[in-house]
Design brief:
The protein has 495 residues and is an alpha+beta fold. The chain has two domains: 247 residues, Nucleotidyltransferase, domain 5 (2-Layer Sandwich); 239 residues, ATPase, nucleotide binding domain (Nucleotidyltransferase, domain 5). The protein has 15 helices and 23 strands. The strands form seven sheets. Strands 17-18-16-15-21-22-23 form a seven-stranded mixed beta sheet, with helices on both faces. A six-stranded mixed beta sheet has the order 3-2-1-5-14-13, with helices on both faces. The radius of gyration is 22 Å and the shape is globular.
Length: 495
């Protein structure tokens, strides 16, 4: 009977709830995209460095995207086998379970408003303990300090009716009309509260951050049915929710990085480089983060993560700040219209330098300017800086894992730039593969949701059509270029 039900089902819905928009994407049995709907999300900036969102707006945008998805595609709700959710990870919502209303805005992962709380905890000398248990560093980026801030800001002492969640948890709670309060291990591993060895909330950390256990969701597998969306939200049809997964982990799964040592790089506003480290967490000696990649029944997979603060946002600056061009698409033609950067090197440390330098004091710099420098050299140097920063991280990952990386899979907006992909391959001296599938993050969630209900099997998950970029420079010229980059980095930090 079960098989006949599955055969009738034609689609998986992936909800990709990101920082700037909510998207719903319909996938078919062959993992092809059938339709996409999208709604922008408003970000507010109450004070410098603060970033907040309206959690109710996120929920309403999700409902709206689901509705327009069916209108666009002509698909029927009862043809959907399962829903997968992938989300901006550390963004924090605290709400009242009786009223269903947030007690404060959602505090976005980028927000630095908890910096003073972080300093308070650093002075207590707990960072080595936190790192050992969570794989993370003490930073406003993660959820625990955001929960603490909300409780203190709103002067809340009685937490009996309060619930906490990252966006996956909030959406599932709303979808099930408050019946299900869960998060998956990937999102939980970004809170500073999950012990990545036990894969459960850590009592010592809860005590340190003074966060009551009753506020926290139950930790579940990345793939597995957690409940059903209430028919009232899904056109009088119930549908299982089969996956919850953080966006970067989802992209790792969507890129089929299933084996230890495989790496993907997402070129977004920043850059996110994740390496599959297999069934044990690798604690970085170089400031990378250890995180849970996914858990599917008895299979637990971990990852090392390095973040590049400025990637696509450098191109945005050239476009919007310096008015060098009207569209990012133009950068490829501009960069390839010259043979080299003519000695120009750009270090885009607009918000300091991340791994492996961890220097938040330094600022961006341009070196090697001459009278012959023009826009073309600056655009080319900007694209090359993305590749140099990725190489910095990959070398560190190889050291941490004691393993050579043999190839790199790329996704994100800037991966459409052939020049960048080719230069990335040249500077790493390994092949770079770009998937024809542009929605690798959404695909990861769809795969995990399909796995949970029998719609997909693991053997269905292979690389789709890949565009290959092979190294074309000799080792000596690569070494010279990279030495120049290291010199520029050094000089930037001395300024």
């Amino acid at each position: 009977m079960m098989d006949s039900v599955i055969i009738m089902k034609k689609y998986i819905i992936s909800i990709d709830q990101g920082t700037t928009s909510t998207r719903a994407i319909l996938f078919d049995q062959q993992q092809n995209i059938v339709a996409v709907s999208q709604e922008e999300i408003h970000n507010s900036f109450p004070q410098p460095g603060w970033v907040e969102q309206d959690a109710n707006e996120i929920w309403l945008s999700t409902l709206s995207c689901l509705s327009s998805l069916f209108l666009k595609s002509g698909a029927q709700p009862d043809e959907v086998a399962s829903i997968g959710i992938t989300n901006q990870r550390e963004t924090t919502v605290v709400w009242n379970k009786k009223t269903g209303m947030p007690v404060y805005n959602a505090i976005v992962w980028q927000s630095r408003q908890t910096a003073s709380i972080v300093e308070r905890y650093k002075k207590m000398g707990i960072e080595p303990l936190v790192k050992e248990k969570t794989g993370l560093v003490l930073d406003p980026y993660f959820s625990a300090t955001k929960i603490r801030w909300i409780l203190e800001e709103k002067n809340i002492e009685n937490t009996e009716d309060l619930l906490f969640g990252t966006i996956d948890t909030w959406l599932v709670w709303k979808m099930t009309n408050g019946k299900v309060h869960v998060t998956d291990v990937t999102n939980a591993s970004r809170t500073l509260l999950l012990n990545i060895h036990t894969l459960d909330w850590d009592p010592e950390l809860l005590s340190l951050f003074d966060i009551p256990r009753n506020m926290l969701p139950k930790v579940v597998d990345t793939s597995g049915i957690v409940g059903e969306i209430d028919p009232v939200h899904f056109f009088n049809t119930s549908c299982p929710i089969g996956a919850m997964v953080g966006d970067q982990q989802s992209a790792l799964y969507g890129q089929s990085c299933f084996h230890k040592g495989e790496v993907k790089n997402t070129y977004g506003t920043g850059g996110f480089l994740l390496m599959n480290t297999g069934d044990t967490p690798v604690h970085s000696q170089k400031g990378l983060l250890s995180t849970v990649a996914w858990k599917i029944q008895d299979e637990v997979c971990y990852a090392l993560e390095g973040s590049i603060f400025v990637s696509g946002s450098l191109i945005q600056w050239l476009r919007d700040g310096l008015k060098f061009f009207k569209s990012a698409k133009e950068t490829e033609a501009i960069a390839t219209s010259v043979d080299s950067c003519n000695g120009v090197m750009i270090v885009p440390a607009f918000t300091g330098l991340g791994a492996p330098y961890w220097n938040d004091e330094c600022q961006g710099a341009i070196f090697g300017l001459t009278r012959g420098t023009d826009i073309r050299h600056l655009v080319r140097a900007s694209l090359e800086s993305m590749a140099y920063q990725s190489k910095d991280l990959i070398l560190v990952m190889e050291e941490d894992l004691h393993q050579k990386i043999t190839h790199l899979k790329v996704d994100g907006g800037a991966s459409a730039n052939h020049f960048l992909n080719q230069f990335q391959s040249d500077i790493l001296e390994i092949p770079v593969y770009k998937s024809a599938m542009t929605e690798t993050t959404a695909l990861g969630a769809a795969r995990l949701a399909g796995l949970a209900c029998g719609f997909y099997k693991k053997e269905d998950f292979k690389d789709g059509k890949l565009e290959e970029f092979l190294p074309q420079r000799d080792h000596e010229s690569v070494e010279k270029l990279y030495a120049k980059w290291k010199k520029a980095i050094q000089a930037t930090q001395m300024y």
